[in-house]
Amino acid sequence: MTSVESSRKATLLLAMSGTEERLQFVLGRPADTGYTVLASREWTVPGESIRFLTPGIQETLQSMDLDVADIDRIACTRGPGSFTGLRLVLAAAEGMAAGSGAQLAGMDYLSLLASGPGPLLDGVLHVLTYARRGLVYIQSYSAPAMTELEPLASVTLDQAATRITECGTPCYLVGTGIRKNSEFFKEFEKNTTHCTLLPSRWDNPSPELLLEAAATADYSQSSIDPIYVRATDAEDNLPNIAKKRGIDPEKAKRRLTELQNS
């Protein structure tokens, strides 16, 4: 049995995810077959993640007589998902890496979710996560090989239904995009031959799945680029926000474009 003290002599791997409402991290230690879970924690605290993530990591490390300096690789889900959650997790990773010299890696969230049930299926797997009201992120795969059939996109519910139908059957649907639009997709399942809504236990990555993806990610000293598939709510509402502040909406749009291209 490996003790915490012997783990301290080895380099550790930290994987984090704050892409959706569930905030997660898992700490892995080297083993003969890759990494094993040393510790993991998760919270469902939308809008309050900043109060839990870094204090939770610090508390967990201290309880095992470990330090951030013992972590040499940090992997984070990089989206798409909650803009606030993504920024929080990526900023935490940057801060820890700056202090410890750890390498960083980003993980594509929908691909990560697909890797859970995908190898157990035979057909087309569609991962749909919640983007905002009436909108989902979708990515489609051929299972069990897990080759991408259709790329990541942000679509309406009707557009998602069309894409799923065009990809053929048997098909399987998973993700928070289904759960938060349950009436729509239950009706879609009822009217679509050989279409199955997978259980909600696949809607979030398990600690083992998160660590496995982190162990095979591509690491470097560079910052992690987030995946933003759609415009933020603030960008969409820019004309109204500008008007309330006495700014010409067109001028505000031009200024935003200049900043984005700088």
Structure in words:
GO terms for molecular function: peptidase activity. Pfam families: TsaD. Residues 53-141 form the Gcp-like domain. Keywords: Hydrolase, Protease. This protein is an alpha/beta fold and 262 residues long. 37% of the residues lie in helices and 29% in strands. It has 11 helices and 10 strands. The strands form 2 sheets. The chain has a 5-stranded mixed sheet, with helices on both faces. Strands 8-7-6-9-10 form a 5-stranded mixed sheet. Helix 10 crosses helix 11. The chain is globular and about 55 Å long. The relative contact order is 0.15.
**In what order do the strands lie side by side in the largest sheet?**
3-2-1-4-5
Structural class given helices, strands, pairing?
Answer: alpha/beta
Estimated helix fraction: 25-40%
**Architecture per CATH nomenclature, i.e. the level-2 architecture of the largest domain:** 2-Layer Sandwich
Question: Which stretches are low in confidence, meaning pLDDT under 50 for 5 or more residues running?
Answer: 1-8
> How many domain units?
2
Molecular shape:
globular
Largest sheet: 5 strands, mixed
The CATH topology of the largest domain corresponds to Nucleotidyltransferase, domain 5
In whole angstroms, the N-to-C terminal distance is 54 Å
Q: Tally the helices.
A: 11
* Oligomeric description of these chains: single chain
What's the CATH first level of the largest domain?
Answer: Alpha Beta
